[in-house]
Amino acid sequence: MADTELASRHCEACEQGTPPLDDERAKLLQGDLDPAWERDGTTRLRRTLRFDDFKDAFGFATRIALVAEEEGHHPDMEIGWGKVVVSLTTHSSGGLTENDFIMAAKVDHLATGTGLKQGLKQG
């Protein structure tokens, strides 16, 4: 389940060369996210969300894009029929920063807290 404290925080600009999180901190922050998030070490977070159709998937991706623009932290997204794949990393750090976990928590919040649950398939 998404941690509401993490979702209520805002992303902060990272300077080029800011080091990525260590594995222990990344593991701790991942515990505050939906268990569907997969972590590739300290490099990337990834979650696939499934929907009933393309329209629902595209609508959800649009909502993510609006939040990402507000936060100044933009995930890579793949949109297809019935799915959105969200991938997060901080390019200026070459890996994961707290911003990635904040943005992931905001995606979790969108998935469970804004009425999108009807179009979102569990699993």
Mean pLDDT level: 87
Fraction in helix:
25-40%
Instruction: Give the class from helix and strand content and strand pairing.
Output: alpha+beta
Which range does the strand content fall in?
15-25%
Stretches with pLDDT under 50, minimum 5 residues: 114-118
Question: How would you describe what is shown here?
Answer:
This protein has 123 residues and is of the alpha+beta class. It has a domain at 41-118: Gyrase A, domain 2, CATH 3.30.1360.20. Helices cover 38% and strands 20% of the residues. The protein has four helices and five strands. The protein has helices at residues 4-8, 23-30, 54-71, 98-113, and strands at 38-40, 44-51, 76-80, 83-88, 120-121. A hairpin with a 3-residue loop joins strand 1 (38-40) and strand 2 (44-51). Helix 3 crosses helix 4. It is globular, with a radius of gyration of 14 Å. The model is unreliable at 114-118 (pLDDT under 50).
Write the layout of secondary structure elements.
Blueprint: H1 4-8, H2 23-30, E1 38-40, E2 44-51, H3 54-71, E3 76-80, E4 83-88, H4 98-113, E5 120-121
Antiparallel strand pairs: 1-2, 2-4, 2-5, 3-4
Helix pairs in contact: 3-4
Notable characteristics:
single chain, 123 residues, alpha+beta, Gyrase A, domain 2, five-stranded antiparallel sheet, 4 helices, 5 strands, 38% helix, 20% strand
Write a concise synopsis of the structure shown.
With 123 residues, this protein is of the alpha+beta class. It has helices at residues 4-8, 23-30, 54-71, 98-113, and strands at residues 38-40, 44-51, 76-80, 83-88, 120-121.
